[in-house]
Amino acid sequence: MIEVKNIVKQYGDHLAVDHLSFHVEKGQIYGFLGPNGAGKSTTMNMITGYLASNEGTVVINGHDILEEPEEAKKCIGYLPEIPPLYVDMTVMEYLNFVAGLKNVPKAEKESVLLDVIEKTYLDSVKDRLIKNLSKGYKQRVGLAQALIGNPEVLILDEPTVGLDPKQIIEIRELVKELAKDHTIILSSHILSEVSALCDQIMIISHGKLVACDTPENLSRSVTGKTTLKIKVLDKDQKVASLLENHFANRAVITADALDTEDMKENMWSGSIETDGNVDIREELFYLLSDAKCPVMQMIPSKLSLEDIFLELTDDTQSEQEMEDLEESAQDMQEEVAHESDI
């Protein structure tokens, strides 16, 4: 679907993106994470063709973004962090304008616009001026313009930034709906949102990719261990020794301090830690079942996405680096303004 190979973006002496490579598969939601100034927005702008890379290639559905820009861009819908809206237009006027820019055939334009309005729940405000809409509805209009042309890939840069909790939930549900028909790359600083929405997570730091995997595998790769929390009915007080004997030299068994209720119910509660990606759930189930010790709870324990993010990124930057980033952002905005009206 998307193949990014060794892309580089440099602003003067500042290296914003440093030989970044990754592959995006069809039909999944990718979370794109990184500290402020890590190069996320710059990378997204290069994928969409808004910015040219100094080195490397971006291929969308077999089309190089620089050599075949028109064919490549037909596959992409892009919502920047600040939606590219003409606020003195009504919603319908603006979407009609965008459809013209994307060369939607006149015969299809009405049905296309009605379809994106329905998908983004804009019917009630389609005749209102954009400047009079709430921020949540403006984000929906931004999503609607990205959907025009039915692109296979949606790239969403901070789609919920600045929204209130109700609006965040609405946009999150909308993204889930869109994921049924589109591959999505989603950048966000709300890590709980990324964890809840995304099938794969890419973490970038100082312009380099430091991790790309499922949330579960990221936790394992960071710790190098798999931990299973269990609670077992232990009337004969034999679970601890049973586990120690069976998993000798293969796992670390740790018993929890029992509360009064667990003691009354003859429960054994604790954790089993194994190295690497070893999954012992089936083995453990049959072991305890044969011993007539019913398993009441079995939960894989993993690091939170916040813990993984902090482990893999370094958010300390010098004042000079921050000044360079601000200048880079300004340069990028000026370049984008040159290359596109929206």
Give the strand order of the largest sheet, numbering strands 1, 2, ... along the chain. Answer: 6-7-8-3-9-10
Determine the oligomeric state from the structure. Answer: single chain
Tell me the number of strands: 14
- Please write the string of helix (H) and strand (E) elements: EEEHEEHEHHHEHEHEEHEHEHEHEHH
Name the structural class: alpha/beta
Main beta sheet strand tally, sense and closure: 6 strands, mixed
Task: Please compute the radius of gyration using only Cα atoms.
Answer: 25 Å
Explain how this protein is built.
- With 342 residues, the protein is of the alpha/beta class.
- The protein has helices at residues 40-47, 69-73, 91-101, 106-119, 135-147, 165-178, 191-197, 215-223, 239-246, 260-264, 281-290, 305-312, 319-339; strands at 2-11, 14-24, 29-33, 55-60, 63-64, 76-79, 153-157, 183-187, 200-205, 208-213, 225-233, 252-255, 267-275, 295-301.
- The protein has a six-stranded mixed β-sheet, with helices on both faces. Strands 2-1-4-5 form a four-stranded antiparallel β-sheet.
- It has 13 helices and 14 strands.
- It is elongated, with a radius of gyration of 25 Å.
- α6 links the parallel β7 (153-157) and β8.
